[in-house]
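A brief tutorial aside. Many learners find it easier to grasp structure tokens once they have seen a single protein encoded end to end. The record that follows does exactly this for 3-deoxy-manno-octulosonate cytidylyltransferase. Read the sequence first, then the structure, and try to relate runs of similar tokens to stretches of the chain.
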Amino acid sequence: MKIVAAIPARYASTRFPGKPLADICGKPMLWWVYQQVSKISVFDEVVCAIDDPRIQEMCEKYGVKYILTKENHPEHISRIHEVATKIDADYYMCINGDEPLISKECILPVVPKEIVSAPYFGGAMRILTDPAETIDFAKIKLVVSEQTGKCLYMSRTPVPYPRGTLFFKYKKYVGVECFNRAALDFFVNTPMGDLEKVEDIDHLRFLEHGIDLHFNYVQSESISVDTPKDLEKVRKMIEKNI
């Protein structure tokens, strides 16, 4: 089974332009992600899927393997699909380029155990412990069946609503995803549905068409850098580690 790790990194982030090049303790953020992912032996290849000459210059300076993809991909899944058209593999593990603290504990639970032909998506989730993250619309919340591990819904608002009981824990999407080629082909050839438009969550395209999303718990202190405030938090954590 061949697994390729692809790290999408877009320069023109709406909330944080130039995010992949943001400095963390003397190195660009994308460098930190690439180093972390490259330590994991399960991957046959690790490549960054970039879209800008400024990121390309950084990759060449630091010896980061990359594929220069189109600038006009509407979201990261389409960018991973372009990688799949250039590198043949059974699975494509997408690790977000804004997860500089990502570790094998966040990734290995998502690795599939067998090859399947039907569209397949696997993802990572963790329990939310920070109230600020729970109400932050940038952090995607999950409703997942404890019996099957299948995702029932994804939202930017805290779900489910605690009307009947307070004895539950919110779950958060972690930026690790696994696709086979069939899932990637389906996504790029299927128009956006109403729920995806409303929530602005790409993965709802699968759910709206009855394709299962499988999520596994991970032990994670990883923080996705969505804003400059997140960046400051990550800097402090990395400074402490080094």
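Self-check: The radius of gyration is 17 Å. If you spotted this yourself, you are ready for the next section.
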